[in-house]
Amino acid sequence: MKLLLHICCGPCATYPVKTLRERGHNVHGFFYNPNIHPLAEHNLRLDSARKLLEIEAIPATICNEYDVEEYFRLVAYRESNRCVACYHLRLSRAAREASAQGFDAFSTSLLVSPYQKHDLIREVGQSAGLQYGIEFYYEDFRPGWPQTRQLSREMGLYRQKYCGCIYSEKERFHSPGSSQARIERHGRNQTDRAR
């Protein structure tokens, strides 16, 4: 099968690429991730994806647009349901690209992560596939999660510390009891006293 694989980052793509190729599929990479914030982080992940694609000699389509404004328009005031908008934005673009280029199916490296919402990815992917007349290939790659860590270390790929969006960065690094939160509360208390 000629398959377009949406790549969220280099490390997450290692195991799906390996598995899909072992099954005889012809894999073509696709990078489009306007949810990743800030731009410096986006570029680190793009460089990591490019490095993997070069090591594995995988042809790819790289979308150079950084449509962060479109991402924020979709999630504004829907932050608690932001993942569905994020999946929709990226998988719809992948489905459109796969259909336009004559692929048999499309999939995503997001399916390797135990931190992603697999039922939602499958639902959004199938919906995007119906919209663009192309099959969404679902496979639960999570059993290969430990291998992604090993393979990415062996390849020297940049490994990120959060999902990608500014909200996941906050969830990963900020907690109400953190020293930064205490500093901010202290500053507000000082301001309140000065009033």
Structural notes for this entry:
With about 200 residues, the chain is α/β, with parallel strands linked by helices. It has one domain (about 1-165): Rossmann fold (3-Layer(aba) Sandwich). It has eight helices and five strands; from the N terminus they run E-H-E-H-E-H-H-E-H-E-H-H-H. The chain has helices spanning about 10-20, 40-55, 70-75, 80-100, 120-130, 145-155, 165-175, 180-195, and strands at about 1-5, 25-30, 60, 105-110, 135. Strands 3-2-1-4-5 form a five-stranded parallel sheet, with helices on both faces. Helix 2 links the parallel strand 2 (about 25-30) and strand 3 (about 60). Helix 4 (about 80-100) runs parallel beside helix 5 (about 120-130). It catalyses: epoxyqueuosine(34) in tRNA + AH2 = queuosine(34) in tRNA + A + H2O. Keywords: 4Fe-4S, Disulfide bond, Iron, Iron-sulfur, Metal-binding, Oxidoreductase, Queuosine biosynthesis, Redox-active center, tRNA processing. This is Epoxyqueuosine reductase QueH. Pathway: tRNA modification; tRNA-queuosine biosynthesis. It holds the Pfam family QueH.
